[in-house]
Amino acid sequence: MALLKTNSLESYIQQKLGILCTVILLLSGYISWLLTIKWQWIVIIELVLFTICFGFTLSIKQRVMRSFTRASLHLDAITQEDYNQFGKSTFPKGKVSEFHQQLKKLSEKLQTQKSHYDQQAFLVYQLISQLDTPVLIFNQKQQLTLGNEAFYYLFKQPWQMFRHATADLLGLHYNDGHWKFIDQAKKNRWQIRHSEFIDDGENHQLLLFIDIEPALRESQLNAWQQIIRVLGHEIRNSLTPVSSMAETLADKASNERDKMVLGVITERCLHLQSFVNRYSSLSQKLQINCQWLSVEHVIKSVSGLFSDINITLNARVNEFWADGEFIEQIFINLFKNAKEAGATEIAVSLTLEDQYYIIDITDDGHGFSNMNNLFVPLYSTKPQGQGIGLSFCRNIIEQHHGVMELHNNNESVQQQKGVTVMMILPKPSIDKG
After folding, report:
1. 57 vs 296, higher pLDDT
2. Beta 144-147 vs 356-363: how paired, if at all?
3. How many alpha carbons fall within 13 Å on the CB side of residue 138?
4. If phi over 0 gives left and psi between -120 and 50 gives alpha, with beta otherwise, what is residue 401?
5. CA 407, CA 410: separation in Å to the nearest integer?
6. Which of 221, 404, 420, 224 is nearest to 330 (CA)?
């Protein structure tokens, strides 16, 4: 019985047909012997019958195996997600035909499911590209396969420049189920959420970067505003009667010295009222009216106020989208800061990277002495500074849905001192009219 055991369909067919052919050859030989046919003819008859049986066995085997081969090719196409190739059955009817029909229905079903999946994936990727929050997708080799335009907020370059870059090259590290930045500054600013998904049979990592700095800054500004609101209320309540009494006494005073003293009191009261009013509007919602601006016109308009500073412009694009009045105020504040820092040269550049306008303002002044408190209200390193200029500038840029960053220049690398201010403004979806 062990000799009759087979492990494959091919050997089973070959064995069974071989047994049948052997029986036929033995019967034909026995019948020929009973008929007293000469042994030479018996040999010829046996050879002819053997040839016929062999060809018959081989034909049946090939016909059966051809059906499985075509089905196997069809399954290979399904494995490769090619649902438009079908294996034609070698038999138009019967079980083999039913099997091929079932494979065809399976291909059509998988094709429908793949179409739905591709549509959903397309919508998801479109949504990712439109998000203002940076999103990165890494494959199972931890290589970057997709990013969105907000990638620029992280690395100041379009994500296509880093296609197939490893997570380590981007300064990202995965440990204990969490993604983190290696750089401490980015680690403190960005919170990373991630999830896994399968695409084209591979595991992918989707990373969503949440900028927690605005939330922290909003909390900080709310605290400052609360303090300013309370102080402003108390100061106004005190200044109003003091100013009124000083003016009344000044009108009645006959002594010039008394009039001068009372006039100083009135002047300082008005100054304090103006001071409080400026700080109370520090984080107010501004009415931003954007339009296409000529960068050359803006710089020319502002540079007239700073004739003692050499201001140069390097623009790769001629126009950008912003509120002209507020943008000019930003340039005035920044140029004024550079002048007070001893700058004699200011270089302004405008470039368009992907869907963002990048404005860099670089001066050769002495730079900032404390980078950690630049945007803190009421903080200033200048003797007469009020600590409002940079906070106001950043408030304007953020209400343009942009980003503002400052850093001291590295003398050893750029061979210059001073400060570089970078402003990132989004390009609008509308065309220039």
Report:
1. 296
2. unpaired
3. 20
4. left
5. 9
6. 404
Please, which residues have CB within 8 angstroms of residue 288's CB and are 6 or more apart in sequence?
Answer: 323, 326, 396, 399, 400
Residue 251: which of 265, 242, 263, 239 has the closest Cα?
Answer: 263
pLDDT of 227 reads: 66
- Of 138, 144, 159, which is closest to residue 204 (Cα–Cα)? 138
Q: Is the dihedral of CA 351, 353, 358, 360 positive or negative?
A: negative
Please choose, from the candidates 171, 193, 175, the residue with its C-alpha nearest in 3D space to the C-alpha of residue 183: 171
Question: Distance between CA 73 and CA 79 in Å, rounded?
Answer: 10
Instruction: Write out the two tokens for 39.
Output: 């042994």
Mean pLDDT computed over 51-62: 80
Cβ-in-10-Å burial (0-12, 13-18, 19+) of 347 comes to middle
Measured in whole angstroms, how far is the alpha carbon of residue 430 from the centre of its chain? 22
| Distance (Å, whole) CA 25 – CA 47 | 9
Compute CA 167 distance to the chain's CA centroid, rounded to the nearest angstrom. 14
| Average pLDDT for 377-381 | 47
Give residue-wise pLDDT tens across range 117-173: 777 667 777 777 777 788 898 988 889 988 888 888 888 888 888 988 998 889 898
Give the CATH H-level superfamily of domain 291-426.
Histidine kinase-like ATPase, C-terminal domain (3.30.565.10)
DSSP 184-240: HHHHHHEEEEEEEEEETTEEEEEEEEEE-HHHHHHHHHHHHHHHHHHHHHHHHHHHH
- Regarding pTM above 0.70, the answer is no
Residue with tokens 């049986």: 53
Alpha-carbon distance 259 to 164, whole Å?
77
Residue 370: exposed, middle, or buried by beta-carbon count in 10 A (0-12, 13-18, 19+)? exposed
Please tell me the CATH superfamily of domain 131-211, with its number.
PAS domain (3.30.450.20)
pLDDT band at 4 (very low <50, low <70, confident <90, very high): low
Least Cα distance to 263 among 274, 273, 253, 250 occurs for 250
Token pair recorded at residue 45? 């008859």
